[in-house]
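Technical annex, item 7. During the second reporting period the consortium partners agreed on a shared format for inverse folding records so that results from different sites could be compared directly. Each record opens with the tokenized structure and is followed by the designed sequence. A conforming record, contributed by the partner at site C, is shown below for reference.
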């Protein structure tokens, strides 16, 4: 590879490292097939959410909120994730209406990328009223799944008009509500191979050379 080609290759690899969202795959912490909820919160305000356990480290780049019927939210909702000691690790707010982007059936908000290690966590969203329907533990979910490394534990809640660690238990599954996006990024070797491929397609590295050089307790919410 001549000096010019080497410089172009370096730029391509740098771009791949700086802009990983183009190469990442997003997976929701939990998901299901139901696109409408059937109950409204009758005695707000509450922080509603769920407890989960991680068996491996994950990175969270987005929080998400269930949009009943996918037609926009009546209110904005603050959300957060706490560790088992009650420390708020990551937080964000989805906006009312359709201002927050809709992915699947979830309105998303980008947060500071946060790595969660193996252990026990709580996720919650603040409901100041009952205008946005929420899934309750007594409702039947179709096709309920969790992301790799995520074990769903319980529905949880806490009363009050401020976003609070929802540690009171109320059965399973529910409340949804809040969700998160687990992000997986490619290995560095994959990025390097992508750079070689782009160079080859661009004619900077002849394909014959590439072939030789690269081996193959409160009142429950109701």
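Designed sequence (site C submission):
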């Amino acid at each position: 590879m001549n000096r010019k080609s080497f410089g172009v290759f370096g730029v391509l690899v740098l771009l791949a490292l700086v802009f990983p969202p183009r190469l990442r795959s997003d997976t929701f912490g939990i998901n299901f097939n139901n696109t409408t909820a059937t109950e409204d919160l009758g005695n707000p305000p509450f922080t509603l959410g769920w407890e989960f356990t991680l068996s491996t480290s994950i990175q969270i780049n987005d929080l998400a909120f269930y949009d009943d019927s996918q037609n926009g939210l009546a209110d904005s909702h603050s959300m957060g994730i706490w560790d088992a000691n009650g420390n708020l690790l990551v937080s964000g707010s989805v906006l009312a209406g359709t201002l927050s982007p809709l992915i699947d059936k979830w309105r998303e908000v980008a947060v500071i990328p946060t790595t969660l290690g193996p252990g026990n966590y709580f996720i919650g969203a603040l409901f100041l009223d009952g205008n946005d329907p929420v899934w309750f533990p007594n409702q039947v979910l179709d096709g309920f799944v969790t992301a790799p490394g995520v074990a769903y534990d319980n529905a949880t809640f806490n009363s009050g008009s401020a976003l609070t660690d929802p540690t009171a238990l109320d059965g399973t599954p529910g409340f949804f509500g809040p969700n998160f996006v687990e992000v997986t990024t490619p290995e560095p070797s994959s990025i390097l191979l992508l750079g070689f491929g782009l160079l080859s397609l661009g004619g900077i590295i002849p394909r014959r050379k590439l072939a030789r050089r690269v081996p193959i307790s409160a009142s429950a919410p109701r």
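The first strand starts at residue 25 and ends at 28. The radius of gyration is 22 Å. All partners now use this format for quarterly exchanges.
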